[in-house]
Amino acid sequence: MGRPRASSELTVVFFPEGAFGPTNNCVGIGKVLLERGERVVFVVEESFAGTLEAQGFEEATMRLKPPPEVEEAPGQFWKDFVRDTAPEFRKPTIDQLETFILPVWQE
Q1: Which residues of 53-92 are buried (b: 16+ CB within 10 A; e: fewer)?
Q2: What is the pTM of this model?
Q3: H or E segment at 44?
Q4: What pLDDT is attached to residue 1?
Q5: Per-position b or e across 5-15, b if 16+ CB within 10 A of its CB
Q6: Domain identity same for 14 and 53
């Protein structure tokens, strides 16, 4: 039976991390909500602009850092992050404390 529904449409806002994995998890839930007649809005990093609108969602973009000099692909920050930091994760965890973890937390 479920709980009684209000007569007005529910608005659900997703604010996933700027990467495909977390975003795609929200897309699955969002599609179910759309099918139920709810309003679904995604707040996404600018590099994802248009990708969620194309799937039928409302989209609002945001940027947490200065704009790039050249257009970037969706999730490019994370692709670059993994490429640049992968060598650190080949080290023992204790060594990562000084060469990766501390510098990241000091930024």
Answers
A1: eeeebebeeeeeeeeeeeeeebbbbbeeeeeeeeeeeeee
A2: 0.61
A3: strand 39-45
A4: 40
A5: eeeeeeeeebe
A6: yes
